[in-house]
Design brief:
The complex is a heterodimer of chains A (365) and B (360). Chain A has 365 residues and is of the alpha+beta class. Chain A has ten helices and 19 strands. Chain B has nine helices and 20 strands. Classes of the chains: A alpha+beta (365), B alpha+beta (360).
Chain lengths: 365, 360
């Protein structure tokens, strides 16, 4: 429920700057996810907010009140980790009422609270079970309920679904979001899983080397990432380098190093600029009559459920991936085929060529 | 192959042949017996019953190192005090090959796993993905022709995992190795394997190419575990050569593929979320189910719509947001449709539908 504000938060571990001047506001009732590669500082960020660590510089405010020195137990937060931390010798009921009990609530006071939480997470029928009798998904839901019986208004989730099977993870995503919205909580969720972040949050924050690179609503971040790093990290993309050979208004013509010229919509590129074009595999069409044609040979055809991924090697060796529904004409394509791809201009993103080189910019490790 | 641990039968009469050069993924939920299966093939566990043959030779009594297999764990288990180069050349060196040959092989393998530039680094200086590639290189350097991979990408970040899938497959194919790869991640299995083996409670539920397992699941469990699906209960009311008709809640009649379930019998209809189209108008030849959009969840390349049908049943449609994509908003009236041939009908399970789906 509170509005959380971080202003220029910096945290160092020896020579490593884990958080480097992070400024971020979580609005009242907002669900925000933080994503980024390992070591980007996302866990440090959540620990700063929780009060597990204290920032070296900068301020943290809850509803306008500075909390830098406020101990964790007075911050009104619920904290859920990746590793399910239930008390193994206590039943679900014992675990969920633990917080209220140590706060000195009487059984009459905590009973309705615990029942409400267990109903919310649909575990009320298993309240007598012990953790080892529950599936890992149910255990993690119990951990969330326990975090919330402390009447927390800010829920901090550090890879909360990370230890679960992929299938269970997907199912719990929507439950978690519903819970947070129904209880009108403010939530900060740290994850390395971009699909999880996109599906669960109102806003996604992308971090890299201790700093915020970009933030935005999931669909904006995915369809119009402002920089190359985000385009690569959030979702999959094809990248081809080239040079702007014509620029008028919003339209640019890029001569790719691969040879062909392609049209794209961009605003701040000029003639002669070295650029990187990026486009999502699902926008690459396998038809010969579209614009922005790229010719190549199919090197691999991979099925992923109802979609097919076609890897195409262009003339000079770059690989372009096209992803299409299986029932489209893509289904008739085979390894070794010579094909023509096309990409609509409005689906092509254009970025300045990175100083350290493209490969380095795209490396995730 | 059968293996028991006390009262639990971890593997229950498994029969499987894997061809030379094939990439097989063994897929199943936690506790399905996947790791037990792999450990038996590796020789790290003995089966209680059954035989394992490699190239026609029974290897039950052969120790792991004599089986032409190399086993790779989720945790990479590199030697922390050795460099990348030393880790990879360790196997050939203890086999006492001549120095020149070892050096050539190690250099080739580091090139292959794209770590030639990091040859002098120690494991702790590398990212998880790089460490995993070193482990893979070390496995290949052992000279074994059969790679046994236990959740090899499981410890990596999601974004990195996806990228390594194709690399792993490519490497195995380029080297002409045979691979058995155990995973609980159905998307990984579908993308990487020549053939998928779905394991459940120690038994093989289905085997087939990724496309076969996905498009023709032979049980509710497989439909649910591999790819996910909408499940609707109902009764078969008639069948002909052209297909069967099923009546579901609210008297709605749905055309499906020809089914073995007899008329008047209770059944479960499964159809893929990805096969379910959302539009404003009916699609000719398809089952058209009017409803209202309850939620729209953006998951990157696709949109997932939850639709409440007029009979109260909720279904999900997952649509790739390619160029032709059209967005719908919550509360909007739409028609969900899927072609009859995409509807799979199964006999109503003895233990109930939820049990088959929730076992996951």
């Amino acid at each position: 429920m509170p509005e959380v504000k971080l202003v220029n938060v910096t945290k160092r571990y020896g020579k490593i700057v884990a958080n480097d001047g992070v400024t971020l506001t979580l609005k009242d009732g907002e669900y925000v996810s933080v994503i980024g590669p390992s070591g980007c500082g996302k866990s440090t960020l959540i620990k700063n907010i929780a009060g597990i660590i204290t920032p070296d510089e900068g301020e943290i405010y809850f509803d306008g009140r500075r909390v830098n020195e406020l101990p964790i137990e007075n911050r009104g937060i619920g904290y859920v980790f990746q590793n399910i931390a239930l008390f193994p010798h206590m039943s679900v009921w014992g675990n969920v009422t633990y917080g209220p009990r140590v706060r000195g609530l009487s059984p009459e006071e905590m009973r309705p609270l615990a029942i409400e939480m267990l109903e919310m997470i649909k575990v009320n029928e298993r309240s007598d079970a012990y953790p080892n009798e529950l599936s890992s998904g149910t255990q993690q839901k119990t951990a969330v309920a326990r975090a919330l019986t402390s009447r927390a208004e800010l829920l901090l989730l550090d890879e909360p679904l990370g230890a679960l099977d992929v299938k269970v993870r997907a199912a719990l995503r929507s439950e978690l979001k519903r819970l947070v919205k129904d209880l009108k909580l403010t939530a900060l969720h740290v994850t390395h899983d971009q699909e999880e972040a996109l599906s669960i949050s109102d806003r996604v924050v992308v971090m890299k080397m201790g700093r915020i690179v970009e933030e935005g609503a999931p669909i904006d971040l995915y369809t119009h990432p402002k920089n190359l790093f985000t385009a690569n990290f959030v979702g999959e993309a094809n990248f081809l380098a080239g040079e702007v050979v014509k620029a008028s208004g919003k339209n640019v013509l890029v001569e790719l190093e691969e040879g062909p010229e392609i049209r794209a919509e961009a605003s701040d590129q000029r003639m002669g600029d070295r650029v990187v074009t990026a486009f999502r595999p699902e926008f690459v069409n396998v038809e010969t009559n579209g614009v922005n044609r790229l010719k190549g040979r199919v090197v691999d055809v991979l099925y992923s459920g109802s979609t097919v991924r076609i890897r195409v090697k262009l003339g000079k060796g770059s690989i372009v991936v096209a992803k299409q529904m299986l029932h489209s004409e893509a289904a008739t394509i085979h390894v070794g085929d010579d094909i023509t791809l096309s990409i609509p201009p409005q689906r092509i993103l254009v970025y300045p060529y990175p100083e350290g080189g493209l490969e380095k910019e795209l490396a995730l490790e | 192959m059968t293996k028991r641990f006390g009262e639990i039968t971890a593997l229950d009469g498994v029969n499987l042949s894997i061809e030379d050069g094939e990439y097989v993924c063994v897929l199943g939920p936690t506790g399905a017996g996947k790791t037990t299966f792999l450990r038996i093939v590796a020789g790290l566990l003995e089966p209680d019953e059954g035989e394992i043959y490699i190239d026609g030779k029974c290897v039950n009594n052969l120790p792991p190192e004599a089986r032409d297999t190399v086993y790779m764990f989720q945790q990479y288990a590199l030697f922390p005090h050795m460099t990348v180069w030393q880790n990879v050349s360790y196997g050939p060196e203890i086999k006492d090959w001549n120095r020149e040959k070892v050096e050539q092989l190690t250099a080739e393998i580091l090139e292959m796993v794209r770590l030639a530039e990091r040859r002098d680094a120690y494991p702790h200086e590398l990212s998880g993905g790089m460490q995993q590639r070193v482990a893979l290189g070390r496995g290949i350097a052992s000279g074994a022709r059969i790679l046994l991979l236990d959740e090899p990408l499981g410890a990596l970040d999601a974004r990195l995992r996806v990228g390594l899938r194709t690399q792993l497959r490519q490497l195995v194919k380029d080297q002409g190795l045979t691979a058995i790869h155990v995973t609980h991640d159905q998307e990984e299995a579908l993308m990487i394997a020549d053939r998928v083996v779905v394991l459940r409670n120690g038994r093989i539920e289905q085997t087939g190419t990724p496309h076969e397992v996905y498009s023709r699941p032979n049980s509710i469990f497989v439909a649910s575990f591999v790819g996910g699906a909408n499940f609707v209960e109902g009764t078969i009311i008639g069948s002909s050569d052209a297909g069967s008709v099923m009546e579901v809640l609210g008297g709605l009649q749905i055309k499906v593929a020809v089914s073995d379930v007899g008329a008047g019998e209770k059944a479960v209809l499964a159809f893929r979320r990805e096969d379910t189209w959302v539009g404003e108008e009916e699609v000719a030849g398809s089952n058209n189910l009017p409803g209202v959009i309850v939620s729209a969840t953006f998951i990157g390349d696709s949109m997932e719509y939850e639709i409440r049908l007029e009979n109260g049943v909720s279904i999900v449609s997952k649509i790739l947001m390619s160029d032709a994509f059209k967005a719908y908003t919550e509360g909007q009236r739409v028609v969900a449709s899927f072609p009859p041939e995409k509807g799979h009908v199964f006999p109503y399970p003895v233990m109930g539908l939820l049990k088959e789906v929730e076992a996951i």
